[in-house]
Design a protein that fits this description.
By secondary structure, the protein is an all-alpha fold. Helix content is about 85%, strand content about 0%. The protein is built from eleven helices and no strands. One of its GO terms (cellular component) is HAUS complex.
């Protein structure tokens, strides 16, 4: 039973894959990825149903049929217009070539008459076309200089010259067109220019097929280039998505590595600074010892010792005097406030005595002088 269900599941997966591939092939111009169809199966089914009614460009079958008919009609009208236009351009080129030859060499009278008749006929036909641009319109066209087509047709060359032109024109036109075709053949394959006229004519008969083949090849390459462009855009999008995932993963790795290595780095920096501080302290102690050795010699040390001993003895004597004074003060404090008044009076009298002694001394010195 499980084997049957597994085979059914596999077949359903295969059908889903083929359906997605068919949808992607039916709508090559739409920017749809296979992941979008996988995540939205109902949308994939809708596109598959829609592909049965529209083509790859999004047109319905009836509209595509009408468009093909309109394009065929347009192509036929374009061919007719191109035929007449190319014939008109060819005649104008023949007239220009004749004018150039006439200025550089002597032209036979009959040929000169032929091209003059052709030029006048073209000018008259062009003027008639300007006077009556459309034979299908029902609106009145404004006249130019008050002329009508009948008046312009009177300027045509004589019937005799026109008949001669019509007899000679196909041969001259054939020569001119053959010359242009040979120029096109030489442009297409420059190495064929030095070959004989018969071989050129043979290759010229196959030139249209070659050009058509080159055109189809160019269109095929253009279509392939467009498909490759769409494929490249999809692959670029996928590549950018994968690249962003890789960048995010790399950023997480860098952050984890940085946090893990930061503790070791801080510890090493702390050890380095501790060692540097210890070195600086040792250097300071060394400098202090050197300064002391340079400052305090043996004589200065012995003198300092004597001074210290004398100061110590004086300090001991001062301490002893201080203690005796403090004992006297303590004995005086026992007598109370009355003695304090007597002590203040005694101090005042002493100060007055000192002041009078100083004044007497100064007075005596002034009298001696």
């Amino acid at each position: 039973m499980s084997a049957v269900s597994e085979s059914t599941h596999i077949s359903s997966l295969g059908k889903a894959d083929s359906l997605r591939q068919r949808v992607l092939a039916s709508f090559p111009l739409c920017d749809i990825a296979e992941e979008d169809l996988t995540q939205n199966p109902q949308f994939c089914t809708l596109l598959a149903t829609l592909s049965q009614h529209v083509d790859q460009t999004g047109l319905t079958v009836p509209l595509k049929t009408e468009l093909d008919k309109a394009e065929q009609k347009l192509h036929s009208q374009r061919r007719l217009w191109l035929r007449s236009e190319s014939l008109h351009k060819g005649l104008q080129e023949m007239i220009q070539d004749h004018c150039i030859r006439k200025h550089h060499a002597t032209v036979p009278p009959d040929q000169n008459m032929l091209y003059e008749t052709m030029e006048k006929s073209l000018l008259v036909s062009q003027c008639i076309r300007q006077l009556d641009p459309s034979s299908t319109t029902n609106q009145d066209q404004p006249s130019i200089l008050g002329l009508n087509p009948q008046q312009v047709m009177e300027l045509l060359p004589s019937e005799k010259n026109v008949q001669r032109m019509k007899q000679s024109l196909p041969r001259e036109l054939e020569k001119h067109l053959k010359k242009k075709c040979w120029g096109l053949l030489s442009y297409y394959q420059p190495e064929w220019e030095s070959e004989s006229d018969g071989l050129k004519n043979t290759k010229l008969s196959h030139l249209s097929a070659l050009l058509d083949k080159e055109k189809k090849r160019a269109e095929s390459l253009k279509e392939t280039c467009r498909e490759n462009t769409v494929l490249l855009q999809r692959q670029t999008q996928l590549y950018l998505c994968e690249l962003m995932k890789c960048i995010q993963l790399l950023q997480s790795f860098i952050l984890d590595h940085r946090l893990r290595m930061q503790t070791d780095l801080d510890r090493k920096k702390l050890d380095y600074f501790e060692g540097k501080c210890e070195l600086v302290l040792q250097k300071i102690k060394t400098e202090m010892v050197e300064i002391q050795l340079e400052t305090y010699t043996a004589d200065s040390i012995s003198a300092h010792r004597k001074i210290r001993e004398k100061l110590d003895s004086e300090l001991k004597a001062c301490w002893g005097e201080k203690q005796s004074v403090e004992l006297k003060l303590a004995s005086f404090e026992i007598l109370g406030k009355e003695f304090e008044v007597l002590a203040e009076e005694y101090c005042r009298l002493r100060q007055e005595i000192e002041m009078k002694n100083w004044a007497l001394k100064e007075f005596t010195q002034y009298n001696d002088k």
